[in-house]
Amino acid sequence: MTESEPVERLQKVLARAGYGSRRHCETLIFDERVTIDGKLATIGDRVAPSEVRIEVDGILAPVAPGLVHYLLNKPPGVVTTAADPEGRPTILSLVPDEPRVFPVGRLDLMTEGLIILTNDGDLAQDLMHPSKGVEKEYLAQVHGDPTPASVRSLREGVALEDGMTAPAKVSRVSEGLLRITIHEGRNRQVRRMCDAVGHPVVRLVRTRIGGVGDATLKPGEYRELTVKEVTRLASALIQERPPVMVATPK
Ligand code: URA
Protein backbone atom coordinates (compact mmCIF):
# COMPACT_ATOMS: atom_id res chain seq x y z
CA MET A 1 0.00 0.00 0.00
CA THR A 2 1.31 3.42 -0.88
CA GLU A 3 0.00 6.66 0.63
CA SER A 4 0.18 8.41 -2.69
CA GLU A 5 -1.57 5.81 -4.81
CA PRO A 6 -4.05 7.58 -7.04
CA VAL A 7 -7.70 6.72 -6.97
CA GLU A 8 -8.83 5.76 -10.45
CA ARG A 9 -11.98 4.72 -12.22
CA LEU A 10 -12.58 0.99 -11.86
CA GLN A 11 -12.95 0.39 -15.60
CA LYS A 12 -9.59 2.09 -16.19
CA VAL A 13 -7.90 -0.16 -13.60
CA LEU A 14 -9.45 -3.30 -15.09
CA ALA A 15 -8.57 -2.27 -18.64
CA ARG A 16 -4.93 -1.66 -17.67
CA ALA A 17 -4.79 -5.11 -16.07
CA GLY A 18 -5.82 -6.66 -19.41
CA TYR A 19 -9.56 -7.23 -19.08
CA GLY A 20 -10.24 -5.57 -22.43
CA SER A 21 -11.19 -2.05 -23.47
CA ARG A 22 -12.61 0.41 -20.93
CA ARG A 23 -15.98 -0.03 -22.64
CA HIS A 24 -15.75 -3.81 -22.21
CA CYS A 25 -14.79 -3.35 -18.55
CA GLU A 26 -17.83 -1.12 -18.05
CA THR A 27 -19.92 -3.98 -19.40
CA LEU A 28 -18.32 -6.36 -16.88
CA ILE A 29 -19.26 -3.93 -14.10
CA PHE A 30 -22.75 -3.40 -15.51
CA ASP A 31 -23.27 -7.18 -15.76
CA GLU A 32 -22.53 -7.44 -12.01
CA ARG A 33 -19.41 -9.54 -12.55
CA VAL A 34 -17.10 -7.25 -10.54
CA THR A 35 -16.86 -6.83 -6.77
CA ILE A 36 -14.80 -4.50 -4.61
CA ASP A 37 -14.04 -5.88 -1.18
CA GLY A 38 -16.93 -8.30 -1.58
CA LYS A 39 -19.52 -5.70 -2.63
CA LEU A 40 -20.94 -5.44 -6.15
CA ALA A 41 -19.19 -2.68 -8.07
CA THR A 42 -21.15 -0.04 -9.92
CA ILE A 43 -20.31 2.17 -12.88
CA GLY A 44 -18.55 5.24 -11.54
CA ASP A 45 -16.74 3.47 -8.69
CA ARG A 46 -13.22 4.73 -8.11
CA VAL A 47 -10.50 2.68 -6.41
CA ALA A 48 -6.89 2.69 -5.29
CA PRO A 49 -6.01 -0.70 -6.84
CA SER A 50 -3.58 -2.00 -4.22
CA GLU A 51 -5.81 -1.03 -1.30
CA VAL A 52 -8.87 -3.04 -2.23
CA ARG A 53 -9.69 -6.58 -3.28
CA ILE A 54 -11.18 -6.53 -6.75
CA GLU A 55 -12.72 -9.74 -8.04
CA VAL A 56 -14.05 -10.53 -11.52
CA ASP A 57 -16.36 -13.53 -11.66
CA GLY A 58 -15.34 -14.33 -8.10
CA ILE A 59 -11.63 -14.50 -8.95
CA LEU A 60 -9.10 -12.06 -7.56
CA ALA A 61 -8.10 -9.64 -10.32
CA PRO A 62 -4.33 -9.05 -10.68
CA VAL A 63 -4.72 -5.26 -10.80
CA ALA A 64 -2.08 -4.00 -8.35
CA PRO A 65 0.30 -1.73 -10.27
CA GLY A 66 3.67 -3.26 -11.07
CA LEU A 67 2.66 -6.92 -10.82
CA VAL A 68 4.31 -9.07 -13.46
CA HIS A 69 3.86 -12.74 -14.26
CA TYR A 70 6.27 -14.41 -16.69
CA LEU A 71 6.11 -17.83 -18.29
CA LEU A 72 9.62 -19.06 -19.05
CA ASN A 73 10.71 -22.13 -20.98
CA LYS A 74 13.67 -23.21 -18.85
CA PRO A 75 16.49 -24.85 -20.81
CA PRO A 76 18.41 -27.77 -19.28
CA GLY A 77 21.52 -26.84 -17.27
CA VAL A 78 19.99 -23.66 -15.83
CA VAL A 79 19.44 -23.49 -12.06
CA THR A 80 16.16 -22.31 -10.55
CA THR A 81 17.81 -20.59 -7.56
CA ALA A 82 18.57 -16.84 -7.58
CA ALA A 83 22.34 -17.33 -7.37
CA ASP A 84 24.52 -20.37 -7.85
CA PRO A 85 27.80 -20.78 -5.94
CA GLU A 86 29.10 -22.91 -8.82
CA GLY A 87 28.47 -20.07 -11.27
CA ARG A 88 25.94 -21.90 -13.44
CA PRO A 89 23.38 -19.79 -15.32
CA THR A 90 20.24 -19.01 -13.32
CA ILE A 91 16.70 -18.55 -14.59
CA LEU A 92 16.77 -14.96 -13.33
CA SER A 93 19.36 -14.20 -16.01
CA LEU A 94 16.70 -15.04 -18.63
CA VAL A 95 14.13 -12.41 -17.54
CA PRO A 96 14.40 -8.63 -16.96
CA ASP A 97 16.21 -7.52 -13.76
CA GLU A 98 13.42 -5.07 -12.89
CA PRO A 99 10.96 -5.52 -11.38
CA ARG A 100 12.55 -8.24 -9.27
CA VAL A 101 10.72 -11.55 -9.68
CA PHE A 102 11.16 -14.98 -8.19
CA PRO A 103 10.40 -18.48 -9.47
CA VAL A 104 7.20 -20.22 -8.42
CA GLY A 105 8.52 -23.58 -7.27
CA ARG A 106 11.53 -25.16 -8.92
CA LEU A 107 12.65 -27.43 -11.67
CA ASP A 108 15.74 -29.64 -11.34
CA LEU A 109 18.95 -28.55 -13.05
CA MET A 110 18.37 -30.82 -16.06
CA THR A 111 14.56 -30.53 -16.20
CA GLU A 112 13.27 -28.35 -19.02
CA GLY A 113 10.03 -26.58 -19.66
CA LEU A 114 7.58 -24.16 -18.21
CA ILE A 115 8.09 -22.24 -14.99
CA ILE A 116 6.35 -19.10 -13.75
CA LEU A 117 8.26 -16.14 -12.33
CA THR A 118 6.44 -13.33 -10.60
CA ASN A 119 6.53 -10.61 -7.97
CA ASP A 120 2.93 -11.52 -7.04
CA GLY A 121 3.66 -13.02 -3.61
CA ASP A 122 0.09 -14.09 -2.85
CA LEU A 123 -0.39 -16.00 -6.08
CA ALA A 124 3.08 -17.55 -5.83
CA GLN A 125 2.44 -18.77 -2.29
CA ASP A 126 -0.89 -20.31 -3.29
CA LEU A 127 0.56 -21.99 -6.36
CA MET A 128 3.36 -23.51 -4.31
CA HIS A 129 1.18 -24.63 -1.42
CA PRO A 130 0.73 -28.43 -1.55
CA SER A 131 -2.88 -28.21 -0.30
CA LYS A 132 -3.83 -26.14 -3.33
CA GLY A 133 -2.68 -28.98 -5.59
CA VAL A 134 -2.28 -27.25 -8.92
CA GLU A 135 -1.72 -29.81 -11.70
CA LYS A 136 1.63 -29.94 -13.45
CA GLU A 137 2.05 -31.93 -16.64
CA TYR A 138 5.36 -33.44 -17.78
CA LEU A 139 6.62 -35.36 -20.76
CA ALA A 140 9.13 -37.93 -19.56
CA GLN A 141 11.40 -39.79 -21.96
CA VAL A 142 12.45 -42.88 -20.02
CA HIS A 143 14.78 -45.84 -20.40
CA GLY A 144 12.94 -48.84 -21.82
CA ASP A 145 9.26 -48.96 -22.69
CA PRO A 146 6.92 -49.05 -19.66
CA THR A 147 4.35 -51.85 -19.69
CA PRO A 148 0.68 -51.20 -19.00
CA ALA A 149 1.31 -52.57 -15.48
CA SER A 150 4.06 -49.98 -14.84
CA VAL A 151 1.82 -47.22 -16.17
CA ARG A 152 -0.96 -48.42 -13.85
CA SER A 153 1.43 -48.37 -10.85
CA LEU A 154 2.46 -44.81 -11.66
CA ARG A 155 -1.21 -43.87 -11.93
CA GLU A 156 -2.27 -45.49 -8.68
CA GLY A 157 0.74 -44.40 -6.62
CA VAL A 158 4.24 -45.72 -6.03
CA ALA A 159 6.20 -46.03 -2.79
CA LEU A 160 8.93 -43.41 -2.46
CA GLU A 161 11.17 -42.93 0.58
CA ASP A 162 8.95 -40.02 1.68
CA GLY A 163 5.71 -42.02 1.26
CA MET A 164 3.28 -43.14 -1.42
CA THR A 165 2.60 -40.77 -4.28
CA ALA A 166 -0.95 -39.56 -4.80
CA PRO A 167 -2.89 -40.87 -7.80
CA ALA A 168 -1.57 -39.31 -11.00
CA LYS A 169 -2.68 -39.09 -14.62
CA VAL A 170 -0.24 -41.17 -16.65
CA SER A 171 -0.37 -42.23 -20.28
CA ARG A 172 2.13 -43.78 -22.67
CA VAL A 173 2.48 -41.41 -25.62
CA SER A 174 4.87 -43.56 -27.66
CA GLU A 175 7.72 -45.96 -27.03
CA GLY A 176 9.51 -44.81 -23.87
CA LEU A 177 7.58 -41.56 -23.70
CA LEU A 178 5.14 -40.90 -20.84
CA ARG A 179 2.81 -37.98 -20.17
CA ILE A 180 2.59 -37.62 -16.38
CA THR A 181 0.36 -35.14 -14.56
CA ILE A 182 0.85 -34.72 -10.82
CA HIS A 183 -0.47 -32.24 -8.30
CA GLU A 184 2.08 -32.82 -5.56
CA GLY A 185 5.35 -30.92 -5.58
CA ARG A 186 7.84 -33.25 -3.98
CA ASN A 187 11.53 -33.00 -4.70
CA ARG A 188 12.49 -34.76 -7.98
CA GLN A 189 9.11 -36.44 -7.85
CA VAL A 190 8.69 -37.50 -11.49
CA ARG A 191 12.25 -38.79 -11.71
CA ARG A 192 11.81 -40.79 -8.50
CA MET A 193 8.42 -42.18 -9.63
CA CYS A 194 9.95 -43.39 -12.89
CA ASP A 195 12.96 -44.85 -11.03
CA ALA A 196 10.53 -46.70 -8.75
CA VAL A 197 9.00 -48.59 -11.69
CA GLY A 198 12.38 -49.36 -13.25
CA HIS A 199 12.34 -46.74 -16.02
CA PRO A 200 14.78 -43.94 -15.14
CA VAL A 201 14.16 -40.60 -16.83
CA VAL A 202 16.35 -39.67 -19.78
CA ARG A 203 14.71 -36.30 -20.47
CA LEU A 204 12.02 -34.44 -18.53
CA VAL A 205 10.01 -31.47 -19.83
CA ARG A 206 7.22 -29.63 -17.98
CA THR A 207 4.49 -28.82 -20.51
CA ARG A 208 1.66 -27.34 -18.43
CA ILE A 209 1.03 -25.62 -15.09
CA GLY A 210 -2.67 -25.62 -14.21
CA GLY A 211 -4.40 -24.42 -17.38
CA VAL A 212 -1.27 -22.70 -18.70
CA GLY A 213 0.82 -24.19 -21.48
CA ASP A 214 2.70 -22.85 -24.52
CA ALA A 215 4.29 -25.09 -27.11
CA THR A 216 5.58 -22.09 -29.08
CA LEU A 217 7.98 -20.74 -26.42
CA LYS A 218 11.52 -21.78 -27.33
CA PRO A 219 14.03 -22.84 -24.65
CA GLY A 220 15.30 -19.70 -22.89
CA GLU A 221 12.33 -17.59 -24.06
CA TYR A 222 9.77 -16.00 -21.78
CA ARG A 223 6.57 -14.04 -22.20
CA GLU A 224 4.11 -12.31 -19.90
CA LEU A 225 1.10 -14.35 -18.86
CA THR A 226 -2.17 -12.92 -20.12
CA VAL A 227 -4.73 -11.81 -17.57
CA LYS A 228 -6.84 -14.80 -18.68
CA GLU A 229 -3.99 -17.13 -17.81
CA VAL A 230 -3.42 -15.51 -14.42
CA THR A 231 -7.11 -15.78 -13.57
CA ARG A 232 -7.20 -19.35 -14.90
CA LEU A 233 -4.39 -20.20 -12.49
CA ALA A 234 -6.21 -18.48 -9.65
CA SER A 235 -9.43 -20.33 -10.46
CA ALA A 236 -7.59 -23.67 -10.58
CA LEU A 237 -6.55 -22.98 -6.98
CA ILE A 238 -10.10 -22.38 -5.91
CA GLN A 239 -11.47 -25.48 -7.64
CA GLU A 240 -8.76 -27.69 -6.27
CA ARG A 241 -9.01 -26.42 -2.70
CA PRO A 242 -10.15 -29.29 -0.45
CA PRO A 243 -13.82 -29.11 0.61
CA VAL A 244 -14.55 -27.35 3.88
CA MET A 245 -15.31 -29.94 6.55
CA VAL A 246 -18.55 -29.25 8.36
CA ALA A 247 -19.03 -30.83 11.78
CA THR A 248 -22.20 -32.92 11.87
CA PRO A 249 -24.14 -33.31 15.15
CA LYS A 250 -23.81 -36.76 16.77
N1 URA B 1 9.81 -33.79 -11.06
C1 URA B 1 11.12 -33.99 -11.19
O1 URA B 1 11.60 -35.10 -11.02
N2 URA B 1 11.89 -32.92 -11.48
C2 URA B 1 11.40 -31.69 -11.70
O2 URA B 1 12.16 -30.78 -11.98
C3 URA B 1 10.03 -31.51 -11.57
C4 URA B 1 9.24 -32.58 -11.26
Overview of the structural elements:
GO terms for molecular function: pseudouridine synthase activity; RNA binding. Keywords: Isomerase, RNA-binding. One of its GO terms (biological process) is rRNA processing. Residues 8-65 form the RNA-binding S4 domain. InterPro entries: PsdUridine_s_RsuA/RluB/E/F_cat, PsdUridine_synth_cat_dom_sf, PsdUridine_synth_RsuA/RluA, PsdUridine_synth_RsuA/RluB/E/F, PsdUridine_synth_RsuA/RluB_CS, RsuA_PseudoU_synthase, S4_RNA-bd, S4_RNA-bd_sf. The protein has 250 residues and is α+β, with helices and mostly antiparallel strands. It folds into three domains: 8-60, RNA-binding S4 domain (Structural Genomics Hypothetical 15.5 Kd Protein In mrcA-pckA Intergenic Region, Chain A, Roll), CATH 3.10.290.10; 69-130 and 211-236, Pseudouridine synthase I, catalytic domain, N-terminal subdomain (Alpha-Beta Plaits); 136-209, Alpha-Beta Plaits. Helices cover 22% and strands 26% of the residues. It has six helices and 16 strands. Strands 7, 8, 9, 10, 13, 14, 15 and 16 form an eight-stranded mixed sheet that branches. Helix 1 packs across helix 2. The longest helix has 14 residues, at 227-240. It is elongated. Mean pLDDT is 89; it is low at 240-250. The structure holds uracil. Uracil (URA) is lined by residues 107-108, 111, 188-191, 204.
Write the layout of secondary structure elements.
Layout: E1 8-9, H1 10-17, H2 22-30, E2 34-36, E3 39-40, E4 46-47, E5 54-56, E6 59-60, E7 69-74, E8 102-103, E9 112-118, H3 121-128, E10 136-142, H4 148-156, E11 159-160, E12 163-164, E13 169-174, E14 177-182, H5 189-196, E15 201-209, E16 222-224, H6 227-240
Parallel strand pairs: 9-15
Antiparallel strand pairs: 1-4, 2-3, 2-5, 5-6, 7-9, 7-16, 8-9, 10-14, 10-15, 11-12, 13-14
Helix pairs in contact: 1-2
